[in-house]
């Protein structure tokens, strides 16, 4: 067999630049010492640039789900009426988390191949003035759907509800615009478009959300954002942080800033369009329409998808993701987020067309998209 | 000025071997792929050797406190009567966590320079048959006290209470013997004696504790150990793990096994005794008696301790820790855990005796301890 490199093309965790990896190997420092105290606020400030917010950002040592639970545990009291917008695996996770915190959970269910409909949200909120929180996912990586957080935010009109957004696989791949869009809470994590290994979650809260948080009665300690607030002024976290993720994140954010955030977002859109054009040239069926398609991951329908993925992995070293929930075994998902480029999309398409015996077709179609920009 | 290396001598996080650091810089892999699924169970099995247990060990992406909260959130229902043994900052953290989960919290308070008294625990439990859980700290790093978990475990007699132990700064520095000592729950973390960067916590539960956990009613999701149990059979975690901590931990555990765990523990005892003999030779007052002294950290009383620490850090690059709680500004603490050797203790003592203008005294005393073994 010829030798192939391992090529991770799943929707997170994703490959990271060597410059970022090397930060992970730096010596351990005192998390309450001068070096960390100087570095940490600068990294948070860089994150504010990415969130496009003046709001404080809290950093939690944990997976993306720890950031989601931080949102729920600081906002949901037993009996709080909440609305969860569910169109995939991670929308359902919001509902499960709210149920675990004994909220009064209302859900609006959407097909698992389509974006959330802001009009339905508007109608539901008009009929349910008591709803205090709306939970949604910006980029539903389980279905490869990008939801329109701005439209949902506006659909609230003058309804009281705070909007909580899971941006775990969106932040850094598509604009966040937290303040301009009036998002009250945004959660993200290190291991997706931020080109950093897994281990850290982030959460930003609007002034309204911070005021709301003060009156919440729930059992929380590790996720209690009031503790993080107290330590933030000192440039510290209440509990030992993932020091190396902070180092790595600083490097990754500097690389993204050097590229220019607009260019980063345009690169993701280009990769999306190349991937979709290539898949279509192979007569593969895309799960999601152009209007709702994610810039960071693409879902392709295929019978025996898992066996197909396994062959691709074994023969060419390229690792795609499978389907989740109702899509298990029915689709495969190609990640194109973070440290990924148009050439990576070409090789993702190349192994597809080789395996499907349609040499050149998909790559050519994708190259046309690339050269037309 | 002469150049000095940064020498981190705090009670965690601690320096890690280069072999371990390099693991942190490895490429990102799929946390649901074959390589991780093969590696993860092996690392858990190595941890079982360290815990000296046949019980399953759950790995949580988070700080040490996330492991403590995993214990509380899986064991404490609102109103559960618990006993917390408080003789320092981390004993108090157990009580705070139990209060956050609305337990009926009973505390036994001990002086913040002395070990927990098993006789008092015995008497208290005899008077309070309703107590369901006892929370204690094995190595109270805030005071440099080692508590006798075996004696407390035995003090329960045939009382029903489960014993929950914070071994964050103990595991790998002193024997755990979870099964032999009848400990029901043991919590630890990566960044102390395990010579691995911060970012991961571990928790082991006895069969009795796992049965007890099933009936607990508390709001939990990220820390819900039943989820971890479901994924463990597949060699996975329910939420994206800190992949690089798993790599690093494997390397560190292999190094500890190569040294031999008995030798590891003996090295910590030697470092403790050297540190204490040296401090005494400088007429410094130790916070803790020989009987209660920690093998992983030593606390020294000193007026203006923080100014003293700052001078040592600036002049020689050696970083000691300050006091916590009632000891703030009154003591300094010298970590000698994990990737630390007798020669490190000699240099910790050297900067003390240079700064105190008592050249040679402490180093000589410590060398006597070393050569007598």
CATH class label of the largest domain in chain A: Alpha Beta
Largest interface: A-B, 54 and 54 residues
Number of strands of chain A: 15
Under the CATH scheme, the architecture of the largest domain in chain A is: 3-Layer(aba) Sandwich
Low-confidence stretches of chain A: none
| Tally of contiguous helical segments of chain A | 13
What does this protein structure show overall?
Two copies of one chain form a homodimer. With 373 residues, chain A is an alpha/beta fold. Helix content of chain A is 42%, strand content 16%. The first copy, chain A, is built from 13 helices and 15 strands. In chain A, a hairpin with a 4-residue loop joins strand 6 and strand 7. In chain A, helix 9 crosses helix 10 and helix 12 packs antiparallel against helix 13. The model of chain A has no long low-confidence stretch (mean pLDDT 97). Chains A and B meet through helix 1, helix 3, helix 4 and helix 9 of A and helix 1, helix 3, helix 4 and helix 9 of B.
What descriptors fit this protein?
homodimer; 373 residues; alpha/beta; Aspartate Aminotransferase, domain 1; Aspartate Aminotransferase, domain 2; 2 domains; 42% helix
